[in-house]
Amino acid sequence: MPKETVEQYIGNVTDTVSSFWHGLSITLSYLLRRPITTQYPDRTELPVRDTLPPRYRGFLEVDASICTGCQACERACPIGCIQINLEKDAANPKLRVVTQFDIDEAKCMFCGLCVEPCPTGAIQHTREFEASQRSVRNLTFRWADPENPFPVYKVVKGAEYFPRAPLGSILRARLEAKRWDAPGPEFLPPDPNAAAPKKAGPGAKAAAAKPAPAKVAEAKPAEAVQAAAQTAAPAEATAAPVAPAAPAAAQPDGGAAAAPTPPNPGDGQPA
Amino acid sequence: MPVNYPPAPKHTPRWMIAVTLAAMVGIPALILGAVLVATPLLQPGVLDAALGFGPETSPWTRDLVYVAAVLGLGFLMVNFGAIFSGAISWYERRVAGRIQSRIGPNRAGFLGFFVWIADAVKMILKEDLVPAEADALLFRAAPYFVLVGFACTFVVLPFGHSLAVTDLDVGIFYVTSVTALTVVGILISGWSSNSKWALFGGMRSAAQVISYEIPAGLAIFVPVAMAGTLSMQGLIRAQGGFPWEWFAFRNPAALVALFILFTSQLAEANRTPFDLPEAESELVAGYLSEYSGFRFAIFFLCEWGNIWVLSAIAVTLFLGGWQIPGVTAEQIDAVRGAATVPALAWWGWNALSLVVFTAKTLVLCNVVVWLRWTLPRIRVDQMMGLCWKYLVPIAFGCLVFTLFWQVGVGARPQLEAITGGVLFAGAVVLALLFGRRVRLNIQAVQGDKFDLSNW
């Protein structure tokens, strides 16, 4: 270690004193100034969503009244957080209705790729972002009611304007109607043979994974991934012949179901 | 349909402001009032008269009553320490917020004052976890060592003219001894956690506290040499009410010793810039890493409570303690009267001395908080270098200088008065210069004026 001279020693002491002098005066001056921080959300002058830029990509909103049911958004979604199911209307076989239009906002990465292919502008990003939920399942927004499906929108040839509801108004009504601590929906149907509710958990999960390959035959590839991942209640209803049988088949080997991996629904899809 | 949240109010409701201000003023006033009333009344002499004890009373009965009285007083003092540490944890966060241009806690009550109560409730409700491979007995015991080291100082810490649990002859020596228990607790907690981070923290703390005991002890010798006593009350009575009668200004070496003592006590209390034992960025939380729930709360209670202890010791030794300007301690003694219960005037002077002492201590507490948000944490080698290369030699120099100074004062008593006046005037000039500098700092930012709003 180099030898310290007396000048250095005294210099260190004076440096310490002067840096205390400067440092304490600076922090005291900040103590007496107004904080820059604005308190969110109570003291903001406007609601924050109204101060955001117009092209902000917040939660997705679907205006069902101008949705053509083309599923372009579903195909465009790189992570598959949109799921759409179409059926023929029972009363009018020529009319197709949307029985399911689910967007999982918890998965959505807000890339905006679904908005671009939409022919009518039914799906749009809003400026809403304050929608935290206790149950993550409540972040799946269902834009179609399976009980009361909406008919697809027929585009008038050469139309340049589509009667869309004001952007954000539908979503805002939804968010305000939903409590933040509402219980999440039961995605998996209760197992009829379940004796012990504890065992039903893994068994039902395996059952949810198993019917997926069966559905690949009739469903589109992207849908199959969705069905396997989510297995939402309406999806089960559409796949009526498969769904009720599968849990019963999976139940006897409830514990062992996890060990032999069910065939990955992604495999063999190109065929 | 239920709405997610009610619209947040733009202003705190009036009743909330009233409740918070009442708690802010009421809780300290209540506990300090209890100290003011209980401390003189629970002394042996008063108890003897009140309970009719005479020479014929069994010593067992008397001892039992005395011990019960002292335990009651101790309970009161520890409660004061606990409430103070809670309140200053809120205050420190508010100050930190403003120094960093933000707001700080503001949700629980007006100005977020009740955040310390919320913290305590949260800590008590949490699981008291003991790591699987830890030495469970020592791990559980460690917080109590720290708590005892903190609480025992209140035995001699004065609050006012007659407001101390007891006035030991070896008061300041006793304080330095019992605060050493804290480092035992920290070392035990670091060792028994069976974690590398905790062990590092514990060892650093041991190295730090034991090193800084030496300059702290040497600096304490300076007022002791000036007063000729180790008793806390005796040290205060040797000073006067006016600033130029304080030890800090009566002797140039004592002023240096004040800074040395203050620095060393910051290090002993593990306060920034000496918070190496729990350096968050290096050691997770140091010796606290494995603690949770109530035990963690005890550690932090002691850490914040120590701010009061270290400020009160510095005030006692160097800054005149509870001495009221213009009134000597003997004058207060004289108005007590011969009755068992002292006269009303005596209570009034005692209350005033309590206010003086509390005000001085709170000013020093502010400095402690202010320093924490000014200085960065120093390195271990810097910490050791500061102690052994600077503080210890300078403290020795101060002590030797003081011994010669006392000889000089014995020959020419007016020496102390002249030095007191000169040094105090110098301190006032420095304070004015500092204030000017702060104003210039504020003006340096265009359009950013002195503003205490936006709480």
Automatic annotation (TrEMBL), chain A:
Membrane topology: Peripheral membrane protein
UniProt xrefs under PROSITE patterns: 4FE4S_FER_1, 4FE4S_FER_2
Domain 4Fe-4S ferredoxin-type positions: 58-87, 99-128
Residues binding [4Fe-4S] cluster 2, per UniProt: 77, 108, 111, 114
Family, as annotated: Belongs to the complex I 23 kDa subunit family.
Binding residues annotated for [4Fe-4S] cluster 1, in chain numbering: 67, 70, 73, 118
Source organism per UniProt: Anaeromyxobacter diazotrophicus
Class of this enzyme: translocase
Spans annotated as Disordered: 182-271
Entry function: NDH-1 shuttles electrons from NADH, via FMN and iron-sulfur (Fe-S) centers, to quinones in the respiratory chain. The immediate electron acceptor for the enzyme in this species is believed to be ubiquinone. Couples the redox reaction to proton translocation (for every two electrons transferred, four hydrogen ions are translocated across the cytoplasmic membrane), and thus conserves the redox energy in a proton gradient.
Chief localisation class: membrane
Name of this chain's protein: NADH-quinone oxidoreductase subunit I
Compartments where found: Cell membrane
GO molecular function: 4 iron, 4 sulfur cluster binding; iron ion binding; NADH dehydrogenase (quinone) (non-electrogenic) activity; quinone binding
Cofactor requirements of the protein: [4Fe-4S] cluster
Enzyme Commission number(s) of this protein: 7.1.1.-
Keyword hit for Membrane: yes
Reactions mediated catalytically: a quinone + NADH + 5 H(+)(in) = a quinol + NAD(+) + 4 H(+)(out)
Description of how the protein assembles with itself and partners: NDH-1 is composed of 14 different subunits. Subunits NuoA, H, J, K, L, M, N constitute the membrane sector of the complex.
SUPFAM superfamilies in UniProt: 4Fe-4S ferredoxins (SSF54862)
Cofactor note as given: Binds 2 [4Fe-4S] clusters per subunit.
UniProtKB/TrEMBL annotation, chain B:
GO cellular component: a single term: plasma membrane
UniProt-listed InterPro entries: NADH_UbQ_OxRdtase_su1/FPO (IPR001694), NADH_UbQ_OxRdtase_su1_CS (IPR018086)
One annotated GO molecular function: oxidoreductase activity, acting on NAD(P)H, quinone or similar compound as acceptor
Principal subcellular localization: membrane
EC number of this enzyme: 7.1.1.-
Membrane topology: Multi-pass membrane protein
Catalyzed reactions per annotation: a quinone + NADH + 5 H(+)(in) = a quinol + NAD(+) + 4 H(+)(out)
Statement: the UniProt record of this protein carries the keyword Hydrolase: no
Stretches assigned to coiled coil: none
Main enzyme class: translocase
Subcellular locations according to the entry: Cell membrane; Membrane
TM helices/strands, residue ranges: 15-38, 64-88, 108-125, 137-159, 171-192, 212-236, 248-267, 296-320, 355-375, 387-405, 417-435
Keyword terms, alphabetized: Cell membrane, Membrane, NAD, Quinone, Translocase, Transmembrane, Transmembrane helix, Ubiquinone
Record bears the keyword Secreted: no
GO biological process: aerobic respiration
HAMAP family reported in the protein's UniProt record: NDH1_NuoH (MF_01350)
Subunit structure as annotated in this protein's UniProt entry: NDH-1 is composed of 14 different subunits. Subunits NuoA, H, J, K, L, M, N constitute the membrane sector of the complex.
PANTHER family reported for this sequence: NADH DEHYDROGENASE SUBUNIT 1, NADH-UBIQUINONE OXIDOREDUCTASE CHAIN 1
Family: Belongs to the complex I subunit 1 family.
Role noted for this protein: NDH-1 shuttles electrons from NADH, via FMN and iron-sulfur (Fe-S) centers, to quinones in the respiratory chain. The immediate electron acceptor for the enzyme in this species is believed to be ubiquinone. Couples the redox reaction to proton translocation (for every two electrons transferred, four hydrogen ions are translocated across the cytoplasmic membrane), and thus conserves the redox energy in a proton gradient. This subunit may bind ubiquinone.
Protein name in the entry: NADH-quinone oxidoreductase subunit H
